[in-house]
Amino acid sequence: MTDTTRPLSSLPATSPLGQALTQPLLLGLFLPIHNGGWSMSSLPRGTDWSFDYNAALTRQAEQLGFELAFGPAHWLGKGGFGGETRYRETSLDAFIATSALAAITSRILLISTIHILYGPWHPLHLAKFGATLDHIAKGRWGLNIVTGFRKDEWAMFGQQQIAHDERYQIANEFVDVLGALWSSTDNLDYEGSRWQLQQAFVSPKPQHGRPILVSATSSAAGIASAVRHSDLIFITSPVGARFEKAIAALPELNARVKREAAAVGRDVRTLINPMIICRDTEREAREAYQAILDRADHGAVEGFFHSHATGDSQSWRGHERDERTVGGNIQLIGTPEQIVDQLLQLKAAGCDGIQICFFDYEPELAYFGQRVIPLLEQAGLRHPVARVPASPYASLAA
Fold first, then answer.
1. What UniProt keywords apply to this chain's record, in alphabetical order (predicted)?
2. pTM (two decimals)
3. pLDDT tens digits for 323-348?
4. 269 pairs with which residues across the strands?
């Protein structure tokens, strides 16, 4: 199969995604391409939204063997979510930023988030752009498909928000057209409910059938859509970020996603987004967590909750104010050994990978590589990864 419904089992083992999937637990980095990262706190840190900072992080993650670098997307007005930090007022575009990373990396998969229903997007645009990026990144580029749950974002584009379940029906049509354009060996004529194409053609074709497709969802309609076409599905804890509560709820959610994928003849991998706070002792880790809370930007937290409440997303439910202040869909706190134990539990609960965020990215990512990854290898969650050579274009972002 070369269309969007191909099962992962049909993916060539030599493709970048096929090679990544040989790891027992996928490691991804949630890039902080917006100010404030994932923590609504004024506690000082080096985390920065700039491209140079995120480029350095991505190269650092690639050297450590991470499989994924993921760029989030949102559309916010002046002041962002508010507060003294003006949380996420400044942000790079995920499509442009993560695509640009292809020139300075050689192995890591690069996932761009795009709101495919906002503004004038046409499947032919994205089919051509995606095929081009597939060749630039040598099969390492992927698309995270989102439909937009916040009314204020739709309003920025002068559009009325489309009803929740209808959005996924339209997204399915969009992705079906992408698949047809990527796989068709002749001009394509198409008359759909929303898009029409006459004698449309895309060349070159993607190298492994199509780019990597990703979805982030929790609703029934979202899961039904995601299992039709996505390779990777980002799930969210339905009961908040506290590990003890989340780990009890995740087995059923993971099982449901994979059961629905199997029902349509597909296999997928699920990932979850943890905030990892790891220190030499548990006391130090808990103190670091509390220090973030002690400098909480309450105005930003209030703005975030208000904005989220006006939308119709069914993800991130059950998160309390403290949990949102620190960030992450689930929070892993403790020593390197405790972090590995929690990751073993996530794997046992059906999670195939993690998309990590840190409070202070550069030093905490380095610490994770030095102290946690060797323990993951000992625990059987990771296979050792050979150090990658520097990209010939690395100096462009130095």
1. Flavoprotein, FMN, Monooxygenase, Oxidoreductase
2. 0.94
3. 999 999 999 999 999 999 999 999 99
4. 232
Tokens 């030095």 locate to 370
* Secondary structure (DSSP) of 131-161: HHHHHHTTS-EEEEEE----HHHHHHTT-PP
Residue 340 falls inside a structural domain: yes
State how far the alpha carbon of 20 is from the alpha carbons of 24, 244, 295, 353, in Å.
9, 29, 38, 11
Whether 52 is in a domain gets the answer: yes
Give the mean model confidence (pLDDT) for residues 158-163.
Answer: 95
Cis peptide leading into 384, omega within 30 of 0? Answer: no
Domain hosting 333: range is 8-397
CATH code for the domain in which residue 57 is found: 3.20.20.30
Give the integer Cα–Cα distance in Å for 45 and 363: 10
392: its two tokens: 């010939």
The DSSP bridge partners found for residue 70 are: 30, 111
The answer, yes or no, to whether the previous bond of 204 is cis (omega within 30 of 0) is yes
pLDDT value for 95: 97
Specify if 264 maps to a domain.
yes
Q: How many domains does the chain have?
A: 1
